[in-house]
Design brief:
By secondary structure, the chain is mainly β. It contains three helices and ten strands; from the N terminus they run βααββββββαβββ. The longest helix is centred in the first third of the chain and has 8 residues. The structure holds a DNA duplex (12 and 12 nucleotides).
Length: 174
DNA sequence: TAAGTGATCTCT
DNA sequence: GAGATCACTTAA
């Protein structure tokens, strides 16, 4: 069974979406070919108060995508060489997103975007077949005990928010 | 462990 | 306009 996830899936609590995305399939169409890879690592960035989130200082031209409706694609460029792929969650005007950090066989958010040829052209688009990037439920259920929660990566500056277990990793992959 | 890389943000 | 920072990767 294959089911494309719609905005109703993403318009829920960010942490819940981040956890449930583990075991779903990220599907990318490039030059007519489709690749589907199981998601095994995500991180949640939730709301104004989250110091690790781009949105915690308010809306800017870069992060305004995070304030849009759930299901938008937020891609940004960092460290001079890497694109990061995020899916916007929650209500309009509430800044939240899930960072996709790894899929099966590809660990690291920068490598993921490189492998799937994801760049700024996708920034601000909506997930779906039309865009060439979407997420499917293929009936795989990951048991909760196989999902590990840990603090997020690369955000030591975020004080107390750096410790929160907002990262979800599937055990035994990568 | 540190360097590379460039967009973006936060001051002037 | 300048300077600092950064949700990372690679090579050592």
């Amino acid at each position: 069974m294959k089911k494309i996830l719609l905005s109703s899936f993403f318009n829920r609590k960010t942490l819940l979406v981040a956890e449930e995305l583990i075991g779903k399939f990220l599907v990318r169409r490039v030059r007519g070919k489709e690749k589907a890879l199981m998601i095994c690592e995500t991180e949640a960035y939730d709301g104004f108060k989250d110091k690790a989130s781009h949105a915690h200082r308010g809306k800017t031209t870069r992060n305004e995508i995070m304030f849009r409706e759930a299901g938008h694609i937020y891609v940004y460029f960092t460290y001079g060489m890497h694109y990061m792929l995020n899916i916007v969650t929650g209500n309009k005007d509430y800044p939240a997103a899930v960072l996709l950090r790894a899929v099966e066989g590809v660990s690291g958010p920068g490598r993921l975007t490189k492998k799937l040829r994801i760049d700024k052209k996708l920034n601000g688009k909506f997930l779906g077949r039309k865009t060439g990037l979407w997420i499917e439920d293929r009936g795989v259920t990951i048991q909760k005990k196989l999902i590990r929660r840990t603090p997020r990566i690369g955000i030591r500056y975020a004080e107390e928010w750096a410790k929160k277990p907002y990262r979800f990793v599937m055990k035994g992959k990568n």
